[in-house]
Design brief:
Elements: H1 3-16, H2 20-40, H3 46-69, H4 73-87, H5 96-110, H6 118-129, H7 135-147
Helix pairs in contact: 1-2, 2-4, 3-4, 5-6, 5-7, 6-7
Protein name: Glutamyl-tRNA amidotransferase
Keywords: Transferase
GO molecular function, one term: carbon-nitrogen ligase activity, with glutamine as amido-N-donor
Length: 148
Amino acid sequence: MALKERITEDMKSAMRSKDVQRLGTIRMLLAAIKQREVDERITLDDAAVVAIVDKLVKQRKDSIAAFAQAQRDDLVAQEQAEIDVLATYLPERLSEEEVAAAVQRIVAAVGASGPADMGKVMGKAKQELAGKADMALVSAQVKKALAG
């Protein structure tokens, strides 16, 4: 079953179980998917849907940081609940060691020698690791690999 179909089925089950929080989050996700499909006149595949989910999770994490700084624990809890729902649609994430190994392989493949090559390495890393790893972690590993 395609990821988009699974999300739609989960929305139906959330409606049946009257799970308002989950239903709202899934509807927001489906709206983001539909918006992208309409804007670009395409039908999204699983990889593109994962990219949207990843983007929405990142937005929620940024919001949590802002709400925590403003001491709005109620909003932090709401955003965290949305992250928990969205995370069910993300593939298994790579560990820090796996990311470091992948970055080393990419650096060698690109032939990068220093910080000036960060753009080339990140471009290739984004192609290979998008949706599989936290890109902030990938960026940190690339900086570490190119600095040393």
